[in-house]
Amino acid sequence: MPSFTTNSSGVISMPLASKFGGEDITGNNAYFYKDGKLQKNKGLSWVVTGLFIVGGLAGGGIVALPTAMVEFGFGVGMIFTVIMSLTVGYTAYALGQCWCILQRRWPQQYTQEHVRKPYPEIGGRALGPRMNLFVSGCVLITQFGTAVVYLLLSSKNIHDFLKAFFAADIGFCVIVLIVAFCLLPVTLLKSPQDFWGAVVVAMFTTSIAVTLIVVGASLDFGICSPERRVPDFQITNYFLALGTFMFTYGGHSVFPTIQHDMKKPHEFTKSTILAFTLIALFYTPVSIMGYLTYGDSLGDSIINSLQTKWIQQTVNMLITVHCILTLTIVFNPINQEAEEFFQIPQHFGLKRVFVRTGTLLTVVFVAESLPTFGPLLDFVGGSTLTLTSLIFPCVFYLFLSVGEKKANENVHCPKSDNYGKNGSPEEEEPVTLINIVEKADRITLFLCTFISLFGIIGGAAASYSAIREMSYAHFVPPCYISAFLDSISDPNSGGRTNCCGFGQNISRYGDPAQFC
């Protein structure tokens, strides 16, 4: 066990291992105890951390969630919005507590300058090394799919903007390449604390975008709302909407990485309360106005339904800025996984440049292969995002909290840094399901069990519905094939307004043939 010293101010310092990944970590940013809580000299405040969470979630959700509201129906959609906000808020809290438990029980291993894969470490300590590997795979797939969706969404918005204002005939697939090239420099930054300013800017662009969407939908309300229709009930629509909800609320894969960079990691609960309050304030008015004004004439994005041109394209670019800046967060866990696999040093160098460039090129290849983001968004939301955002946090929190309780009951039990059968130190008895039933807090056990079952059933149904929808959807060929086929139009070629009404032919500006 580490020794502790007290300085003249009464602050208890904990000396740490002198090396981690070849980098000296005993400098000014070492952890210390104050008032019984771990903290360090510098790092993200809980307010900035909350804005990070908002930045990682809000962009794609704002444009896609109104469509999910239409598929659910207004009443069910509003109820589900409240349920999802409370559910993902609780699982974010549980995940934050998991990281705090790791830092308390294994301080020499998890109070270092930089831990590359905090979420897989949580899974490994809860259920063993195999779970560590499984969580790594889920995080990688989740963040990779999210990166592809955001890259496609950003490129589509830029494509529509150029076509609307400049009549520029630049192919959508070319814009994907340009956006990726411009994004490369910021993906080379090490961790969230290196680019917190960009995320704060992203949050404010989203605030302005939400205001403009509500204003634009209000201007369209008089002519569009009387012609609004809602789709007939279909259970598959519910499950597709569930996948969209999960995508828009489930950014948990990156939460431990952000919490790891906090000055006071134990204040992550404050960050989640702030974040999901702001997200609810963003999502709710946009979803309500989208449903009441446009109904089932909405496409994958509400932006194209706004009929005031300057509002539509201003929102377009604000959301684009948000998505591009958010990609700096989304790419970070992917890059850190790749660097861990290839044993890349922590300091900046050519090896980091090569690995992160390769990661970005892989995302670009998938984006060029699947140039429509709607079905992919639903599938990612229903599959790995459900695991990382609902199921894993609850299961890991139960095992880790009960494991800590057992360890505290037997204070003389020697500790080890090696994984045992389910992540407990080898000298301790592994946590069993019987232990969880006997020792877990009753309310925690009920909530975690309910959320896990909901995630398993809902996630499986949403994934199946998304795959079924993709199989029936209109096939859009990959960019590298459509470039050689003159008869096939450019993917996402549009730039015009998605008019309202049952036939999508109602416009505030007269002749729908010219405007819609």
What does this structure look like?
By secondary structure, the protein is mainly alpha-helical. The chain has one domain (43-515): Amino acid/polyamine transporter I (Up-down Bundle), CATH 1.20.1740. 66% of the residues lie in helices and 3% in strands. It contains 18 helices and six strands. The longest helix has 38 residues, at 129-166. 47% of the residues are buried.
Which strand order spans the largest sheet, edge to edge or round the barrel?
Answer: 1-2-5-6
Oligomeric state, counting identical vs distinct chains: single chain
Annotation field: number of helices: 18
Low confidence ranges: 1-27
Structural domain count: 1
- From the coordinates shown, what is the CATH architecture? Up-down Bundle
Order of helix and strand elements from N to C terminus: EEEEEEHHHHHHHHHHHHHHHHHH
Q: Find the structural class using helix and strand composition.
A: mainly alpha
Largest sheet report = 4 strands, antiparallel
Query: pLDDT average, as an integer?
Result: 82
CATH fold group:
Amino acid/polyamine transporter I
From the N-terminal CA to the C-terminal CA, the straight-line distance is: 70 Å
> Class in CATH?
Mainly Alpha
List how many beta strands DSSP finds. 6
Return Rg in Å.
Answer: 24 Å
The portion of residues forming beta strands comes to under 5%
Shape: globular
Helix content: 55-70%
